Amino acid sequence: MPKAPCKMPIQPPMNNKDINPITPGPRKKDLKRRAAKPRLSGHKKRSIWFQARSAWPLREAPIHTLVLERNRAKRDLPVAKRAARWRCIGPTNIGGRVTCVVCDPRDPNRIWAGAAGGGVWQSNNAGVQWRSLWKKQDSLNIGSLAIDPANPDVIYCGTGEANLSADSYAGVGIYKTANGGRTWQLLASASDLRIPTRIGVMAIDPFDSAHLVVGGVGAYESSPRPDDFGGIFVSQDGGVTWRRETFISTKNYWCHAIVFHPAKPGVIFATFTEQGAKSGIWLSEDAGEHWRQLNKGLPDPENFGRTSLAISPSNPDVIYVFAQDSSSDGLLGVFRSADEGATWREIGGRHFQAEGQISYGNTIAVHPKRPNHVLCGGVDLHLTTDGGKTWTNVTPLARDLPLEDSVDDEVLDPRRKVVPATLNALSNEKVPQPEVHLAAEDGQGDHEKDRCRVRIEDAQGHALARKARFPLQSAGVTSALLAPVAGRGFSNGCTIPLGSWFRILVINVLIADSP
After folding, report:
1. Which of 132, 207, 382, 459 lies 20 to 30 angstroms, CA to CA, from 466?
2. For residue range 128-151, what is the model confidence (pLDDT) as tens digits?
3. Strand bridging mode 131-132 / 119-123
4. pLDDT value at position 515?
């Protein structure tokens, strides 16, 4: 039998008296202020979105699962008849990040760089041109590089980004090359040897190339799982076997910096964080057999978060550290020692008050020949040339540029493109005037009409030339040479001392399009 139609009950008409009027809520100024929640993680807040979509519900996806699945697909799936051709369609405003750079001590033009998610790259001309050395390795995530000072063709690569962010990813262990990067082999597997999956620092003993020390971090600093442990690990046989040091803790702790003394065998400096009073700077004078904590002139150890360390190659008595405040994402201080770490003093002053994100961006370096010439920073880089008495921000995020006259008075094609950019460079001691390469977004057109206007400053921000113009000498390539104008010298006749840092701020690049 057919079902009877379902009849809905008829609602009685609503009386207007039964309707409660909607009243506006309290104004924001009238609300009680809530206390800020304590910061329990050093991760960038904006990274939660990435982490939730890449590994949920885990902190991070197990990389060995990815490797196994990749190998399975290669084995079981048919080979494509024609390799797929990919084209980037955006977004184009997302930048990558470089986690490490090493330089050939015999030839400073040879550079290797490791990318957080892009493998290892190499340049033979001081960074003008780069080529990828990473082809079929299991992980693209690079955390550190170390070059053997006795044989610069030997390079070790620690995988896994150690930048303490939810959008940084783990690696598979340590790779090694013996031919400058042409071929690589997995020297130490993280899963087999229980070394960290995020290796942020590697150091090679300058007096014994078989003595390697690496430092790493884990997914959580307080994780009890051995697979998540960071710390400092030592190999005495060139990376074949490894031992985790437990003088900081038998439980989880992190190691952020390791530096061998360049002139004294057995002397090692390192920095650590742990859940207690053993964070900070440590020293070994017997090649790592025993360690002691350095604290004279420094804040209490529990205040130290992630800390970078650099020793002056020309005067190893001078050591600098750049330390995060463990209670925030700000800077605890920049500290200097003139007696190999026995005593310290703070040299940053109030200059770094606006600096932040120190748990993520944290670095320091000393000039190879000038012990008072130091670069360090978090979001920006800061320079001192007098051992910390004065500082200059050399990479400001915003700067007043004379853009009001950005249209060149020379006649150019009206369809020109404006490509703003900023460049830092070091004057080359081999040539009387520096050459700077500028990436142009155009590979065609009438390049005889292309022009570039720049402002050139010294390291302190003083203008050497305000509106220097140069032709862009390019012929169908994306790298254009910013060259001296014949008869005028570099930048309208201004001189830059050899070996000095200078800054080129590109006001505009006017590129004539093809007709």
Report:
1. 382
2. 889 999 988 999 999 999 999 999
3. antiparallel
4. 40
Same domain for 325 and 300, yes or no, is yes
Sheet holding 292-294, edge to edge: 254-260, 268-273, 280-284, 292-294
Instruction: Please report whether residue 31 resides in a domain.
Output: no
Concatenated DSSP letters of 62-106? -HHHHHHHHHHHHHHSPPPSS-------S--S----EEEEEE-SS
398 occurs within a structural domain: no
Contacting residues for 254 by C-beta, under 8 A, at least 6 apart: 215, 216, 217, 218, 221, 230, 231, 272, 273, 274, 306
In this structure, the number of other CB atoms found within 10 A of the CB of residue 222 comes to: 12
Q: SS3 letters for 380-413?
A: CEEEECCCCCCCEECCCCCCCCCHHHCCCCCCCC
* Backbone phi and psi for residue 430, each to the nearest 5 degrees, phi listed first: -90, -15
Single-letter code of the amino acid located at 297: G
Do 378 and 409 belong to one domain?
A: no
10 Å CB burial of residue 130 (0-12, 13-18, 19+) is middle
46: in domain: no
**Higher confidence at residue 5 or residue 357?**
357
Segment 367-389 mean pLDDT: 94
Cβ pair 367, 387 in contact under 8 A: no
| Rounded Cα gap, residues 136 and 460, in angstroms | 44
Cα(311)–Cα(340) distance, integer angstroms: 9
Q: For 114, which DSSP code?
A: E
Q: Which domain holds residue 247?
A: 98-393
Positive or negative, the CA dihedral 205, 208, 210, 211 is negative
Only one residue has tokens 């206007």, namely 453
Q: Check whether 403 has a pLDDT greater than 80.
A: no
Extract the tokens encoding 504: 């080129």
Partner residues linked to 7 by β-bridges: none
Q: How confident is the model at residue 186 (pLDDT cuts 50, 70, 90)?
A: very high
Partner residues linked to 155 by β-bridges: 147, 177
